[in-house]
TrEMBL record:
InterPro entries: Citrate_synth-like_lrg_a-sub (IPR016142), Citrate_synth-like_sm_a-sub (IPR016143), Citrate_synthase (IPR002020), Citrate_synthase_AS (IPR019810), Citrate_synthase_bac-typ (IPR024176), Citrate_synthase_sf (IPR036969), Citrate_synthase_typ-I (IPR010953). GO terms for cellular component: cytoplasm. The lineage of its organism: Bacteria, Pseudomonadati, Pseudomonadota, Alphaproteobacteria, Holosporales. It comes from the Bacteria. The keyword Isomerase does not apply. This is Citrate synthase. PANTHER family: CITRATE SYNTHASE. NCBIfam families: cit_synth_I, PRK05614.1. It comes from Candidatus Odyssella acanthamoebae. The keyword Acyltransferase applies. The active site is at residues 298, 356.
Length: 422
């Protein structure tokens, strides 16, 4: 009821999760907008890809629990699931892998693009540029209304982002770019492009490649988070897919989102020794101090992040495999985890270590520099972004995204001539 007028708004039910109030007629009927900064209670779209129940700590891709996928599946199967809605049959999996591996190389002119960047450029800055630049190289997959072109753009993105990511790393350390190897699986190929050099053979450690594959699975999609919503919003204007992914990478870069794994490691470095953990925990609890424990808390999970559970286990496996027992940063991380898990402030606010806390530690142990952490998150999330973008383009109800606002600026006033301004 508003201004004496009562209107009825339908309540829609999904297959899981809270019902939603359909407010599409609200403005026409009442002249009211809704106000929800940060979209904490707003469903921006209908989707069949990923489901999260933050209170219960549940994450499903296409209905399958993330723990099962991480344990029993692999990144190529999960990518297929996200893109096509079902796990592939053996034949479909074979074809999908062939389609991806056929696109792993990048255009030979792309290396010149890298050389335009400063050596010390952040690899995320490079990724924003080069992924967007793919639209200038692959004109034959830009027509978003052609399903075949959309599919090729999807293959290209999933296949080329690891190559571009490894190139960003190689460029930063002055080593030659390494071509992809299509006889290796997706995660092993990425490690090969990151760590091999032309002067000697490189054997991918299967435990590390398995850990990398799990990291990719766990980060592959997370429904309507900031970067995915950015991809959808950019794509809603019918922008080309490569430019939309570049927008997603830009949104992911922030420390409140994908940048948290890098920020978590930087925080561990700043803490410096287990003796100083208490001081930082106290700062995180101090209302007058903007400091937060990076790698803790989540907008949606108010229970343990199910990805963090898998990641924690993988983290311990990797540390054991690499025989790392006395890394001071890892000691700080493990002690911080224990303190935060038993501190009433974190317990009451349901602030658990999130996926980024553990992935940062694993990457560090693998010898991956901190500046590459968010790049690997972007690599994993590319398939999720592409799946969500494809779903949006095919949605008959899709419209250009155009939020409204609560204006609190000056109301209309007469123009003041410059000679009369005081
Ligand atoms: N350290 C200390 N206090 C915290 C933290 C933290 N990491 N996170 C939230 N709080 C407190 C916050 O101060 C607030 O307290 P109060 O109610 O007394 O004002 C309360 O918890 C709720 O915080 P919020 O900012 O309203 O929660 P949010 O849902 O808007 O923020 C978040 C979620 C992830 C941005 C936040 O927890 C955070 O900044 N965490 C650190 C960054 C991080 O690890 N981000 C990665 C998220 S997981 C990967 C991804 O999705 O990209």
């Amino acid at each position: 009821m508003y201004n004496g007028k009562t209107i009825e708004l339908p309540v829609l039910s999904g297959s899981c999760g809270p019902n939603v109030i359909d407010i599409r007629s609200l403005y026409n009927e009442t002249g009211l907008f809704t106000y929800d900064p940060g979209f904490t209670a707003t469903a921006s779209c209908e989707s069949k890809i990923t489901f999260i129940d933050g209170d219960e700590g549940i994450l499903l891709y296409g209905g399958y629990p993330i723990q099962d996928l991480a344990e029993k599946s692999d990144f190529m199967e999960v990518s297929y699931l996200l893109l096509y809605g079902d796990l592939p049959t053996p034949q479909q999996k074979k074809e999908f892998i062939k389609n991806i591996t056929m696109h792993t190389m990048v255009h030979e002119q792309i290396p010149s693009f890298y050389r335009g960047f400063r050596r010390d450029a952040h690899p995320m800055a490079i990724m924003v540029g080069v992924v967007g630049a793919l639209s200038a190289f692959y004109h034959d997959s830009l027509d978003i209304h052609d399903p075949r072109q959309r599919e090729i753009a999807a293959y290209r993105l999933v296949a080329k982002v690891p190559t571009l990511a490894a190139m960003a790393y190689k460029y930063s350390i002055g080593q030659p770019f390494v071509y992809p190897r299509n006889d290796l699986d997706y995660a092993s190929n990425f490690l090969h492009m990151m760590f091999s050099v032309p002067t000697e053979p490189y054997e991918v450690n299967p435990i590390l490649s398995e850990a990398m594959d799990k990291i990719l699975i766990l980060h592959a999609d997370h429904e309507q988070n900031a970067s995915t919503s950015t991809v959808r919003l950019a794509g809603s204007s019918a922008a080309n897919p490569f430019a939309c992914m570049a927008a997603g990478i830009a949104a992911l870069w922030g420390p409140a989102h994908g940048g948290a794994n890098e920020a978590a490691l930087a925080m561990l470095q700043e803490i410096g020794s287990p003796a100083r953990i208490k001081e930082f925990v106290n700062r995180a609890k101090d209302k007058n101090d903007p400091f937060r424990l990076m790698g803790f808390g989540h907008r949606v999970y108010k229970n343990y992040d199910p990805r963090a559970t898998v990641m924690r286990e993988t983290c311990h496996q990797v540390l054991k495999e690499l025989n790392i027992h006395d890394d001071p940063l890892l000691d700080i991380a493990m002690e911080l985890e224990q303190i935060a898990l038993s501190d009433p402030y974190f317990i009451e606010k349901k602030l658990y270590p999130n996926v980024d806390f553990y992935s940062g530690i694993i990457f560090k142990a693998m010898g991956i520099p901190t500046s590459m952490f968010t790049v690997i998150f972007a690599l994993a999330r590319t398939v999720g972004w592409v799946a969500q973008w494809k779903e949006m383009i095919c949605d008959p109800l899709q419209k250009i995204g155009r939020p409204r606002q609560l204006y609190t600026g000056v109301a209309q006033r007469p123009f003041v001539d410059i000679t009369e301004r005081r």
